[in-house]
Structure formats: structure tokens, C-alpha cells
Design brief:
Elements (H helix, E strand, L loop, with lengths): L10 E5 L28 H14 L3 E5 L9 H9 L6 E6 L4 H11 L3 E5 L5 H8 L4 H14 L5 E6 L6 H12 L3 E6 L24 E4 L4 E3 L8 E2 H4 L1 H11 L12 H4 L2
Parallel strand pairs: 1-2, 1-7, 2-3, 3-4, 4-5, 5-6
Antiparallel strand pairs: 7-8, 8-9
Bound molecules: S-adenosylmethionine.
S-adenosylmethionine binds next to strand 3, strand 5 and helix 9.
């Protein structure tokens, strides 16, 4: 499918939950967030319907994200359901890696192809400061397990404050080189102030080549992370919500004041 600026849209990012087992300083307040009510969280059946419909319309690349997708109950079952949909060619998941060690094998067996793992530093204390709750050893073991079971290539998402030459970012780069991992640097963003930028080493944030639609944890199709536009699948129906998102996908992102990374899926 193409939007009105002739961009081919073939990528759907699905936020399966707004819940997370970390509280990264740039993402969530320490006290947590006001969680969505269970009845408002999209069901696995609804997610599968959105994937099937979007694949029929031309999507062939799916990413599961969150919140932290691995904390949603039954996530391996959802992965299995999506992996069986004919036409899904590239199927990945973004995680903080905290529980990846014990889930990697089951995810691979269910049909997941690869993972991106978030890691902003290699210093255990800094990791704890940034995430407020996390133990870096869990993440490093999760990454190793993902490689071992073949969820490859494993890519590392590293949030930077100003530059990929910052000490933490350089250490992450060295670790990636040693361990056959690909790194992409994400500038710290403030969606509500319209502060966003391209991902170094990735494709995100470049409006000219944007190929994405998003499904939020509360069942809205969003044409753009940096915009307030969103279309509820329970209100419009799946097909029409996708059509509306496609029709109104902005040429360029601006500001987003009604959502953030943890409920849209950064
Ligand atoms: N919990 C998973 C994780 O940690 O990868 C998936 C969801 S998380 C919202 C997705 C990505 O968004 C992570 O790499 C995270 O570092 C990034 N992120 C969150 N808040 C951000 C912000 N304000 N600016 C830039 N990236 C952000």
C-alpha cells in the first residue's frame, strides 16, 4: 500500500502492552504510569486481525514492542499466531532483555526471527541508574541466549543524549563489535515538544522514507509516532482504521501530545 506521498507502507509496529518491568528515566516516571484498564488493552485476537488485514494490504514486516512485550502473559502464543500468517516475511521484537534469557528459545520455536535489545551503557551502576530497576547481567545473558538460539541478527538499541561518541555509547559499540551485534543509536527524544531525530544505523525518524504504521496497546492505528493522529479499531473497524491512517499519514512528523514511547512503542 502507498500513502498520498507515494511512500510504500509495509511495516507494522505493534505495542502489545503499556506495562514495563523497568522505569528508564527518559521513558517513564519513577512512580510508574497510569496503566490502561484491561478492557482497553487490545486482545491477541484483535492483534491477529490487524496483522492479517494489514498483510493483505501490503505489510510484510512486523515488530512487536511495548511497554515491555515480554511481560505480557502469553506473548509466546501471540508470536506463534503471527508467525503463521502467510505473507509475514520479517518478524522481530524489541525488548529490554531482562527476561529474554528464559524466553528466547520458546520465542524462536514459535517463529520469531530476530530481536532488538535496548542497552544504553555497559556500566552496571549506570544501567541501574538509567533503568532504575534493572540488572545489566540479565540483559547480557539474554542477548547471549538470543544469539545462541538464532534470534539473529541481534540488534542493540542504544539511547544517547547528544552523540554516539559519548563514553557509554562508545563502550556499547565496542561490546557490539566484539560480540557480533549490530548497534543503532537513538537520540533521546521528547515527543510532546516535537523533538525527534533520525536513528543512527537504522531507518527510524526519517520521514521521507517512512514505511510504518503503528498499533497501540489500546487498539489505535497511528500513522506517525510524532503526531496526535490515531484511529481506534473498535470504533472504525480494522480495515477502515488502517485506511484512515494511510490517508492521513503526515508528510513529516511534528508533535505528539497524547502518547509516548511506552504506550505507542518507540
Ligand atoms: N521495552 C522495550 C525496550 O526497552 O526495548 C520496548 C519498548 S521501548 C519504549 C522501545 C525503545 O524506545 C527502547 O529502545 C527505548 O530505549 C526507546 N525509548 C524510550 N523512550 C525514549 C525517548 N524518550 N527517546 C528515545 N528513545 C526512547
Amino acid at each position: 500500500m502507498y500513502d498520498k506521498f507515494n511512500r510504500r507502507i509495509n511495516y507494522l509496529r505493534i505495542s502489545v502492552t503499556d506495562r514495563c518491568n523497568l522505569r528508564c528515566t527518559y521513558c517513564m516516571p519513577e512512580s510508574g504510569i497510569k496503566l490502561l484498564e484491561h478492557s482497553n488493552i487490545i486482545s491477541y485476537e484483535e492483534i491477529v486481525e490487524v496483522v492479517k488485514t494489514s498483510v493483505q494490504m501490503g505489510v510484510d514486516k512486523i515488530r512487536i514492542t511495548g511497554g515491555e512485550p515480554l511481560v505480557r502473559k502469553g506473548i509466546v502464543d501471540l508470536v506463534g499466531m503471527i508467525a503463521q500468517i502467510p505473507g509475514v516475511k520479517d518478524f522481530s521484537l524489541t525488548t529490554n532483555g531482562i527476561t529474554l534469557k528464559k524466553q528466547a528459545k520458546a520465542l524462536k520455536e514459535a517463529g520469531l526471527q530476530r530481536v532488538n535489545v535496548s542497552l544504553d551503557t555497559l556500566n552496571p551502576e549506570r544501567y541501574r541508574q538509567i533503568t532504575r530497576l534493572g540488572n545489566i547481567e540479565d540483559v547480557l545473558e539474554g542477548i547471549a541466549e538470543a544469539q545462541k538460539v538464532g534470534l539473529t541478527p541481534v540488534k542493540i538499541n542504544c539511547v544517547i543524549e547528544k552523540s554516539s561518541q559519548e563514553p557509554d555509547a562508545l563502550e556499547v559499540a565496542a561490546y557490539c563489535k566484539e560480540n557480533d551485534l549490530q548497534v543503532r543509536y537513538i537520540h533521546q527524544m521528547e515527543l510532546s515538544m516535537g523533538q525527534f531525530s533520525v536513528v543512527e544505523g537504522g531507518e527510524g525518524g526519517d520521514c521521507k522514507i517512512c514505511n510504518r504504521l503503528r498499533l497501540t496497546a489500546d487498539g489505535k492505528i497511528k500513522p506517525c509516532l510524532f503526531s496526535n493522529l490515531e484511529y481506534k479499531i473498535r470504533e472504525f473497524g480494522v480495515q477502515e482504521a488502517i485506511n484512515l491512517a494511510l490517508k492521513h499519514k503526515p508528510k513529516c512528523g511534528s508533535v505528539n501530545t497524547n502518547g509516548t514511547f511506552y504506550n505507542i512503542g518507540g
